[in-house]
Specification:
- By secondary structure, the chain is of the alpha/beta class.
- It has one domain: Rossmann fold.
- Helices cover about 30% and strands about 35% of the residues.
- The chain contains 5 helices and 9 strands, in the order αββααβαββββαββ.
- A 5-stranded parallel β-sheet has the order 4-3-7-8-9. Strands 1-2 form a two-stranded antiparallel ribbon.
- Strand 5 and strand 6 form a beta hairpin.
- It is globular, with a radius of gyration of 15 Å.
Amino acid sequence: MANDFEKHIASVKDFPNKGIIFRDITPVLQDGKLFQAATHKLAEYVKSKNADVIVGPEARGFIVGCPVATELGIGFVPARKPHKLPREVERASYDLEYGSNSLEIHKDAIKPGQRVVVCDDLLATAGTLRACKELIENLGGELVGSAFYIELPDLKGKEKLPGLDVFSLVKYHGA
């Protein structure tokens, strides 16, 4: 499965100021069987973590996390860019190699003691993952793992959250 999956990921030059090769999952999303297989693999991981909720950072995290939550019958919480959610929100800022931003989730989205897994398309420098961790913990939840389609180990994102379990379908070295 990983080899099939890897073959369907497009490699394109990312924004010049990032200095990395972007791994585009769009071809995977266009292949229903491959998308379903990838979703199932991530769901197996999330189930092993006994998660109550999946958090998906905007926007690819919605695409990745929502089907996993649906397959498992658990909650899904979107982490959005600023000023996109109604009602009262919790906000966490993060830095990336090309600037900073922040994510928000509803203050009532995560209940104290809930076990949470973050699902997204790509683990690079871990900026959004660290922001999600902060949001989850500020609301009393416990981040028990993270699941990605793609990991770029050379960018050392995993090292920025020591002790956090990271699952990825494909690892690309030489990002």
